[in-house]
Write a structure and sequence with these properties.
Length: 237
Amino acid sequence: MSKDILGKALLDYHNLKYTEDIIIHSSLGEDDILPIPYMYRGFDKMPLLEQIALQHSSGSILDVGCGAGSHSLYLQENEFDVTGLDASPGAISVCQQRGVMKTIHSEFLKIKDQKYDTLLLLMNGIGIAGKLKNLDKYLNQMKMLLRPNGQVLLDSSDILYMYESDDEDGGYWIPQDMDYYGEVTFTMEYNNEESEPFDWLYVDFNTLRRAANYNGLECELLKQGENDDYLARLTFI
């Protein structure tokens, strides 16, 4: 992640220099805010899907895109063998300072020669695939990292509602040059600094299930959220 915008914001908050949140510019046309304190939330403040995912975690766990380490810390406090993984050096530094015992500073696809019982990809962690065409590559990486009876726990959202038409006939308006409506490009802005644009994927459950099955994985819906989001579990067929 160029300029490590997220890492700088997390470090500022951890070092008591918090003055502003991250602004998210989106190809969907609407800016959003990522509140930095939210990245430090405890279990009781986490969304229900995240709580369920943590409660279903077992064995040795890889927390992919661990951010400030909130999920890793909860699991560690409950005596799980958890490793936090993030491509952001600032995020990894924060995790270490907060007490996460095992961390890896790396991109997900570069992890090799390691095996886990649970891969945890929360806060739409599958978004790191960027484009739907990359999903097979990421699913196969998951298979390489899983033990035979392992599982992947991930949440995502169906964002088709973002394209609802204002016409009286209803329906959806999706740009013709878009391969899949869940592909979004973001830019992060923080403290007068802006990241390079990066691609992020939101994948509806049926599309995820088809991709998983094609790649030799069973896809189970663990919980449907209230806002077109869901929690899924992937296991070997």
